[in-house]
Amino acid sequence: MNKYQFPEGFLWGGATAANQMEGGFKEGNKGLNIADVLPGGKERYDILLNPGFDFEINHDKYTYPNHEAIDFYHRYKEDIALFAEMGFKSFRMSIAWTRIFPNGDELEANEEGLAFYDRVFDELHKHGIEPVVTISHYEMPLYLVKEYGGWRNRQVVTFFERYVNAIFNRYKDKVKYWMTFNEINSGLVMPIQGLGFSIQKEEDKYQSTFQAYHHQFVASSIAVKKCHEIIPDSKIGCMILFAPVYAFDSNPENVLYSLQEEQLFNYFCGDVQVRGEYPAFIKRYFKEHNIKLEIQDGDLELIKEGTVDYVGFSYYMSRTEKKVKSPEEASQGNIIGGVKNPFLQASDWGWEIDPVGLRISLNKLYDRYQIPLFVVENGLGAYDKVEEDGSINDDYRIDYLREHVRAMGEAIEDGVELMGYTSWGCIDMVSMSSGEFSKRYGFIYVDKHDDGSGTLERKKKKSFFWYKDVIATNGEKI
Ligand code: BGP
């Protein structure tokens, strides 16, 4: 068995998002955000993928698991101590924009929100853990969604600039690793979370989507430039949902279709954020979909100047494509679609498990961009069982993670420059796509259930001890 050589200083750790773990949804003057109005359970998935959501809370019909989540807001010390016990070198988290600017368009930042993250960063540093912070992780202020139409509206760029100014200035001595928008390309299929709006009936979805993207690219470049100015020793990356696209077979039509899907979904946003310009292939797409971007003077220069230092990406699955497919062939749970891959097994939620796909992704991304990569999400959502003696024997999760760590080791051998690995959901929390607690990813079990019951007590799973060894040996013992 190969022993892998992970670089010295490799950022092993875990990843989370404020809206899925903090709870305290109205504490410390926090305003409501998109995640606060998304219901728990299977309905959430339909809402995310279909047009016409009204962004209202309806307690008669739904539950809202993100409101309390796993209460990291009050329990962060205990949780960070557990991460430290596993030996985390880094911890990926996000700042909830609405803790800092409750509505989003205020002129002054909310001191209570700023102070909360000071406490969290201080606690991480006390344990020698480097924070890796996502600036916007599916938690746009609800007020900006309702009053301004989300990222469709150019004014939001100004509000975002105010937000990044506030956090860069406040945390310049505490946070050196940043990322702009979580899974920025996901807005192509889930505009609610990524772009802050739901497509309306009469709306031209292509025009709105890509105009909103243009605003986000401008905002991302502003953030990158400001980050470099205010925190010169920082690194700021983009964050892409990467699912490599395979052609179902060698029919050239299917190969071409897969290439086009890969360009649009996997590369479009990264090309703008890493290379600093709109890629050639998108011009034809814009023409065919009658998309005419409003670009202000100076935007393209700004995009050219504000390119990222590294590519952060999430990796859960690959995607297999065919130009013409019947409903029976469709993959069951893959968010981005595609057809079933006969060589792969799927998770309980239908996500196809493909560790080799991670090695392929790392090679593809590095070949294309030649800047450092960072796997900032990867993991297995599964049902866990607490045994009578209190143990949780999640060997399936260990198997999954081991194969993905191997794939990274191989990619490093292939020559890929990889900064770190923060596996998703290092502690159980609310699922993004289904709003369930029962879709668990953690090394740490949280006693909280889909019906809202549970003590919130934390327990170490078997994978906790496995990951501790992986980190202690810098990936040699997996
Ligand atoms: C990514 C998101 C995360 C997340 C993860 C797992 O797409 O960035 O927020 O939760 O996927 O997805 P889920 O929670 O739906 O299983």
Labels describing this entry:
single chain, 478 residues, alpha/beta, TIM Barrel, eight-stranded parallel barrel, two-stranded parallel ribbon, 15 helices, 39% helix, binds 6-O-phosphono-beta-D-galactopyranose
Under CATH, the homologous superfamily reads Glycosidases
The CATH topology annotation reads as TIM Barrel
Note the overall shape: globular
Total helical elements: 15
Largest sheet: 8 strands, parallel, barrel
Structural class: alpha/beta
Total beta-strand segments: 12
> Could you say which small molecules are bound to this protein?
6-O-phosphono-beta-D-galactopyranose
Q: How much of the residues is beta strand, in percent?
A: 5-15%
The portion of residues assigned to helices is: 25-40%
Note down, in words, how this protein is organized.
With 478 residues, this protein is α/β, with parallel strands linked by helices. The chain has helices at 18-21, 43-49, 72-86, 97-100, 111-126, 142-148, 155-171, 191-195, 205-230, 252-275, 280-288, 299-305, 355-369, 395-413, 462-472; strands at residues 11-15, 90-94, 130-136, 177-181, 235-241, 245-247, 310-314, 319-321, 373-377, 418-424, 444-446, 458-460. The chain has a single domain, classed as Glycosidases (TIM Barrel). Helix content is 39%, strand content 12%. Helix 7 packs parallel to helix 9. The radius of gyration is 21 Å and the shape is globular. Residues 17, 20, 182-183, 241, 314, 377, 381, 424, 431-434, 439 line the site of 6-O-phosphono-beta-D-galactopyranose (BGP).
